[in-house]
Design goal:
binds NADP nicotinamide-adenine-dinucleotide phosphate; alpha/beta; 21% helix; two-stranded antiparallel sheet; 6 helices
């Protein structure tokens, strides 16, 4: 486990231009959680989350640095004579981290950053793909450090914010460009949810077309209303420059 040194929290301000990709499944009343877990079981939505957060699409500027994938199948680039494994980061709050079943965490092929005020929380964690950060700024500073230090052997490509409530809120109200990949779920028990996605400010966010959503997703997305186990859902995109 990597512990974010507090000195990293003040490195430069490039991290304020990092695009934050929020990914969320929310009911019609913005409900996202119930009793510490997801309110519904939607396998295809979970597959969308996994594919979105795992897939690495290098920006044009980095494509020339790509070398053969590593033995785990991850994209690799060569920078300044050092090879780096390219991963997306998933930033999450402590409750969301704890809600991931032990056998699935850390989320594989992704760099997991857990926000918590408890310095001891991840003390026993041995995976090099898990870090703790005090807040969102600290997490972004840590990502800058990971990318600029050849010794880390890791390059973070996309930065996903995967919940819960306060982490989404901090990201939405940050100075950073934000993309919200929302799956809107029509859930008949929406009033039983106890955690909610923050209201999307209408003055700063634009609800984009499906074509714009498709252009920003590195795989084919199904358009319109979809159904699984009598639950209707739809993939949407909201952006803030
Ligand atoms: N539907 C979805 O897409 C979705 C996505 C994610 C989560 N969920 C659900 O939402 C629920 C969990 O969300 P939640 O809102 O209760 O909790 P959470 O945001 O996952 O975790 C809250 C904790 O994270 C830390 N934290 C949060 N924001 C922080 C910030 N800005 N800076 C520093 N630390 C911060 C604090 O930890 P400390 O107390 O340790 O300081 C806080 O108590 C679960 O039911 C989960 O299943 C649903």
């Amino acid at each position: 486990m990597t512990v974010v040194a507090s000195s990293l929290a003040s490195t430069g301000n490039d991290s304020s231009r990092q695009v934050l990709k929020l990914i969320v499944a929310a009911a019609q009343n913005n409900g996202i959680g119930r009793k510490g877990t997801l309110p519904w079981t939607l396998k295809s939505e979970m597959a969308y989350f996994t594919k979105m957060t795992r897939t690495v699409r290098l920006p044009a500027a980095l494509r020339g640095l790509q070398v053969a994938n590593d033995s785990g199948g991850d994209v690799c680039i060569s920078m300044d004579g050092t090879e780096k494994r390219v991963l997306n980061a998933c930033i999450m709050g402590r409750h969301s981290w704890e809600s991931i079943p032990l056998r699935y965490r850390p989320l594989n092929h992704r760099y997991n950053i857990v926000l918590t005020s408890n310095p001891g929380l991840l003390a026993g964690e041995t995976s090099p793909l898990v870090a703790r950060a005090a807040d969102l700024r600290d997490a972004l500073s840590h990502i800058e450090h990971i990318n600029s230090d050849p010794a880390t052997g890791i390059f973070i490509n996309d930065v996903f914010v995967i919940g819960g409530h306060a982490v989404y809120k901090a990201a939405m109200h940050s100075p950073n460009p934000v993309e919200i990949f929302m799956t809107r779920v029509q859930f008949s028990e929406a009033d039983t949810c106890d955690v909610f996605f923050p209201e999307i400010p209408k003055d700063s966010f634009t609800h984009q077309s499906f074509a714009e959503l498709q252009a920003r997703v590195p795989f084919k997305v199904q358009e319109g209303k979809l159904t699984e186990d009598n639950l209707e859902y739809e993939h949407q995109l909201f952006t803030k420059p």
